[in-house]
Amino acid sequence: MTSMPQSSSRGWQRPSIYDVARRAGVSHMTVSRVLNGHPNIRETTRARVLQAIEEMNYTPSSIARALATRRARRIGVLIDGPVQNGPNSTLRALEKAAREVGYAVSAFSIGDDDASQMDSGVMELVTQGVDALCVIAPRESSLDLLRQQTTGLPTIVIKAEADAAWHTVGVDQREGARLAVRHLIGLGHRRIAHLAGPMDWFDARERMEGWRECLAEAGLPEGPIIIGDWTSDFGFEFGKSFDLGDTTAVFAANDQIALGVIHGLHGRGIRVPDDVNVIGFDDLSDARHFLPPLTTVRQNFAELGELALQQLIAAIEGDTDPSHDTIQPKLIIRESTTAVVPG
Fold it and tell me: Are 305 and 291 found together in one domain?
């Protein structure tokens, strides 16, 4: 008969791996080996442990699995720019994927203005006893600091480009930009401005290069390029004051910038998309509710988190050769872009 969790002066308690070990007459390490499918266990011993587990209604915990593997089953995450949509969405996706396979995530946020926090972040996570490190949305300056660290831990960096030093996985940012610009060119636009994110960010540089390459392939001159930050305020300042001249379309480096552009243009009586087209990047959950609904480039953050976790687990289990996976973005066409009307 299955027994209930043990009672004590503190109330009901779920049975532990030690309780199972006592019931089965074995050590707790033997229970751990059974839980993790260790081959060098006598069948009679395995059967006795499994019977005790069933009788006590024992649910293996991450602690029990860690005892058998001598791992914490915890991944340390260093996240640059945690308030930005992309990094934040990637972290949530990684946490979800980790929970589904019994891993926990400890995160350390690095502020936009202090890449030197990378040192203290690595130290804090390593002190917690994590099995691996993941770096989300890195800037060049923060990765330079990470290269100077020697942790001995498997490490994955979320960026589109392969890197011989680490495992990497990322959305193809350059191709995402090319999808956006090709779409505008296909609609007849010949003067396309780009509002770029900070150039210390790999994603910002890749999106800028994709815009530049696509224009060159089409034989078009580079439109105006303005480098700023990731905020709607940056886009708003452009929209309310920039002299568009013959510019008929704006490729914004993210959806927040695009929202600011639309707002700023609206204040000047410039209509989107009738007078100027605007396209973003990320596909925020609210992008379809912008006025007008925003054409943008979607990043699959759920797939990104799952791939990152798969690489990390493989690395934890001994796959030391740096690997690289790339996810393709998707163009989402809405009402902020339209064909140029011959005039």
Answer: no
